[in-house]
Amino acid sequence: xxxxxxxxxxxxxxxxxxxxxxxxxxxxxxxxxxxxxxxxxxxxxxxxxxxxxxxxxxxxxxxxxxxxxxxxxxxxxxxxxxxxxxxxxxxxxxxxxxxxxxxxxxxxx
Length: 109
Prior knowledge:
CATH topology: Alpha-Beta Plaits
Strand order of the largest sheet: 3-5-4
Order of helices and strands: HEEEHEEH
CATH architecture: 2-Layer Sandwich
């Protein structure tokens, strides 16, 4: 997936005006997170990209994080996601980075 797709999907999603509702709140929160590879090394090959995509689907199922778009280049990852406002942006980053790193190191040492 190319990184430039993230922006177009982001604006398509925003134009829908979907507001999610909880028991005591309503929200429309979108986070555009960028994860560069350490020292911007070119490490994201086909196998690693496949692992990241599969792991992201698992994160979306297990955690209350809605992944709206995922884009990758050879040296960084773009993630457009949304979640309930009670989940801090730092928590989303921690979940994504820790689980994907663990999966990559287990499956592609």
